Each structure stands twice: as C-alpha cells, then as structure tokens.
Amino acid sequence: MTEEERAAIALVMKRLGQTMDRIGWDKRLRDLTAADVTALIEEALEGYGAEMSRIAATAEVPF
User: Fold this and answer.
1) The dihedral formed by the CA atoms of 41, 46, 52 and 57, expressed in degrees to the nearest 10
2) Which terminal residue of the chain, N or C, has fewer Cβ atoms less than 10 Å from its own Cβ?
C-alpha cells in the first residue's frame, strides 16, 4: 500500500465516523439496516475515490 493510499484511507475513516454518528455507534454490525450498510459502503467508495483523485491532481509526474 502506498503513502497516498494510506492517506486516502485515513480520510475515509473520518467520513465513516461521521456516517456512524448519524447511524449510531451503539448499533452492532448485525443490527444495521440495508440502508445503513449502503451508506457506509458509498461513503467508503466515494471518499476513497475523491481523495485519490485529489492526491493524483497534486502529485508530480515521476519522470
């Protein structure tokens, strides 16, 4: 895993935390609704993609 990927994951964790704030931290995984799980998956995918795009846009070309 690259530094960029680790950075993107760290930012996704923040976004997932915000989603869990809305869902409720006291819920067990098996008690999440399909909508809750979908929200978490969407947040992870969208967040990771957005952060990797942002990193790529600011990175220097390696040649």
Assistant:
1) 180
2) C
